[in-house]
Amino acid sequence: MALSSSSAPAKGVVVPVPVLALAASAAAIFLFFLVSSLSSSSPSSCTCPVPAATTTTTTTVGAEAYGRIGERISPTAEDVKWVKDQIEANGLRMQDNVLRKGINPRTRAQQLQDLVQFKGISHYEGEESSNHTALPCPGELLVEEHHSNYGEPWAGGRDVFEFLGDSVHLSPDARVLEIGCGTLRVGLHFIRYLNPGHFHCLERDELSLMAAFRYELPSQGLLHKRPLIVKGEDMDFSKFGSGMYDLIYASAVFLHMPDKLVWTGLESLVNKLKPFEGRIFVSHNIKFCSRLGGDECTKRLSKLGLEYLVKHTHDSLLFNHYEIWWLFINVFERSLGILLIRKLTVVIHVRKAGGIMGILL
Description:
By secondary structure, this protein is of the alpha/beta class. The protein is 34% helix and 15% strand. The chain has an eight-stranded mixed sheet with strand order 2-8-9-7-6-3-4-5. A three-stranded antiparallel sheet has the order 1-10-11, with no helix packed on it. Keywords: Membrane, Transmembrane, Transmembrane helix. This is Methyltransferase type 12 domain-containing protein. It holds the Pfam family Methyltransf_12. It comes from Rhododendron griersonianum.
């Protein structure tokens, strides 16, 4: 249709339907990237990492503690106040950390010795000893020795779950991949929250996997959640199928790997990250990237299709501790938005006072 002026008086605005649809799409994409850019405190370029790009997350997150369908992730300020009030109302005071009187107060080492020597307080003998336990568990796991394998309290796993869950607005139908889930210190909380089969993990240590399968999942009543936990080496994700993930995270794992292996893993993970929504979080440090230098790091990430976005810290609920996390996104997410905003031009024909005005969206 040719554009020409007319002597007829203006009656309104003529907007072809296809053009209107394109305009709406462009506006939606523009708003998405505008919100994304405002929500991050870091420029898009990666000079890996920059102190100015640090944000701090606390445990009292109010309404943000709830997922998309109303399920709570983090405790609210009201929750924390409630438990403090209960402690005060009951007149409780912390006492010396010594064994209390009870049926048979024992340390973990003593409990293990008792299991080896006496089995349970009441137990079956002879042929009956193997007919009543559906899933026999080693004594070392029963006394939870593996809870002391992390150099910090086991409760810190909940802190990580709450931080990551709130950061990505986790919902039960999200799909999550952990690299190096160990004995499920963090993973248990994701497995409990997510729909069955939605938590995946790659772990190389056999003893950790035994603790996960033979103690943690059964004792926590989570066998029905059917997490996909795979023993594997060298960042091989071939057994996880072609599904895409909303969240991929590695907690204190990459710092123990050769840089070359980390980059190999990232190259595979990019194709498993959901466009627009998917996030990769890496904790403690990203020396695999910073050792290359800022510019080279950025180029290497860009070549893979990744971009460093921001550095976060989050605090523990129960002890004096914080962790640092680096967030990476799919470069396609940002570049597509910029491309559409710059190159998608929608002209709406406006008849007004005998003339035509083009509006650039």
